[in-house]
Structures are given as C-alpha cells and as structure tokens.
Design goal:
alpha+beta; 297 residues; 8 strands; Chitinase A, domain 3; 4-stranded antiparallel sheet
Length: 297
C-alpha cells in the first residue's frame, strides 16, 4: 500500500510541470472531464500515463485510485494553467525560457526511454551469466539468532556507578552459569525495552546490524554458548546464541525472476550511459566548469 501511495505522490508532483501539449484535444475519444468549453479525454489521460516507465505504467493501470488522482490533477493543472495565461505568465520571457528547458528535458527523457531503455532485454542466457558474475548480490549472509540481557549505563554515569552496574551484571551472569533460565531472567531484569518482553530475543541478524563489540561477541559464540560481560555504549550485555545460519548462495532457479530484474536494471543503466557518452562525443561537447559563478559572485 505504501508503495502505491509513494508512487501516487511522485506522479502528482511531476504533473505540476506537464507541458500544455500533453492535454491534446481529441473530440473522438470519451470525455472524462469538462472545463468550460475544453475537455480532457481518455487519450489525454493515457498520454500522461505513457510518460512513465513500464513498471510504473503497469502499476498505474492496475490501480483505479491512482488513475482517478491523475485525472483530478490534470483538471487542476489545466485550471491553474488557464489562470496563469489570463495573467500573461505564458508571455513572460523568463517563464518561456524555463518552459523551453523543461521541454528539452522531457524530449530527452522520452527519447532515451523509447530508443534505449525500452529496447533492452534480458535473455535466459544473459541472466545466468549475470548471476555467475554477481554471486555476492544473491548470497544470503551468515546470521545468528541471539538473546541478550542489558544492564543499562547512562552517558553521565561516573566510574563508581559503572562499577556497581557491572557488578550487578556479573551477579546475573553467575546465576545464569548456575543454570538459571536465560529467557526468564531476561524478561525479569533486562533493561532493553525492545527485547525484554521477548525474553531478550533479538531474532536473526547479520553482520553490520549491531554495534561492533556486541556483534563480535555474538558471532564468536556457538549455538547454546553464552558470553561473558560485553561492554558497549549502552551498558553491559550478556549474550546467548540460540541458532546460527551459515552464508549460502541462493540457487538460480529459485530466484531467477529477481536475477533477471536486477540484470535488466543494470543493463538499462549501462545502455543509457553508453548512449549519452557516445552522443556527447559525437556532438563535440565542450564544458567549462571553471566558469560557473561561485556563490556570492
């Protein structure tokens, strides 16, 4: 749902700069809205939808709410644009110059989409080759599932207070070593509100998720083993590892759709970069970045 909402917001914002010729008058198509003696037709709406990439178009086509939002934005844009014309904004040189820049950008975007991006495809052979060359992208990392007990220290705590809190943690560790249940103890004494009610359970996590000292201790333990006192910026921890999952490479057949999608996106980016670099070279472009005015000049 959030994905659709974010897309809708993006589309609505982009429509604020839709050029006037996007609202072509087509009396032979079904009228979706009337603004005085002007109309917005199915063709107008389809043209705006067509301005987006294939993935976005598919999402829009399958979501009536987004289509309705698009239609309303077309209406609002037309009404506000008409008000601007009545005030002569379309005749102002600075606005005409901005319109020209926007038209150039839009033309370039459409050309790249139609002539470069939409022509990129990924065969089964290419997908398999991509999988072989990018195995780290499809590897599930080593993970551990751990519980912990935290005795929290405040940043302003002095050495005496820290010593007392560490002694408290050591007392808890002693009882655990004597056979006291870890999960039950965590639910009673841990000062980590995020895991206390779950018996200290942190679920599975990979490297790079936790702070270094905690992570180093957790990954050094075997399932069933318990750490000593581990000090971090949050306080004193006692860690128990419940399970471990070794890193493994996902089989191609299981994730081939994901592989093809990632390969397609990378190939599209490469195709656009290659095309633009070639076009810049053929156009004999010269750019003088040293002449860009600095702030305050």
């Amino acid at each position: 749902m959030s994905r659709h909402r974010n897309l809708a917001i993006s589309i609505l914002l982009s429509l604020l700069v839709v050029p006037p010729w996007a609202f072509a008058q087509d009396r032979n198509k079904e009228v979706l809205a009337k603004i005085g003696n002007k109309t917005i037709t199915v063709t107008d709406l389809e043209r705006v939808i067509g301005m987006h990439d294939p993935a976005q178009r598919r999402m829009i086509e399958g979501n009536p709410q987004i289509k309705e939002a698009l239609l309303w934005q077309l209406v609002r844009s037309r009404v506000v644009a008409d008000a601007a014309r009545k005030k002569g904004y379309d005749k102002k040189p600075e606005i005409k110059a901005q319109q020209e820049i926007m038209a150039q950008n839009f033309l370039a975007s459409v050309y790249l989409q139609k002539e470069v991006v939409d022509k990129v495809t990924v065969s089964e052979e290419k997908a398999k080759a991509y999988y072989q060359d990018h195995q780290d992208d499809f590897r599930t990392p080593e993970m551990v599932r751990a519980r912990h007990i935290l005795i929290r220290t405040e940043a302003a705590a002095d050495e005496k207070e820290k010593k007392q809190l560490k002694e408290k943690a050591e007392g808890i560790l002693k009882k655990l070593k004597e056979g006291q249940d870890f999960a039950k103890t965590a639910s009673e004494v841990s000062e980590d509100p995020g895991s206390k009610d779950k018996g200290g359970d942190l679920d599975f996590f990979a490297r790079g998720t936790m702070i270094p000292a905690f992570e180093e201790a957790a990954f050094s333990l075997k399932p069933g083993e318990m750490s000593g006192i581990v000090e971090t910026e949050f306080g004193y921890h006692i860690i128990k590892v419940e399970e471990k999952k070794e890193a493994f490479l996902e089989p191609y057949e299981k994730i081939k759709d994901r592989v093809k999608e990632k390969a397609l996106q990378d190939l599209k980016k490469s195709a656009v970069t290659e095309f633009v670099e070639k076009a810049l070279k053929e156009a004999k472009v010269e750019v003088y970045t040293d002449r860009i005015p600095k702030h305050g000049q």
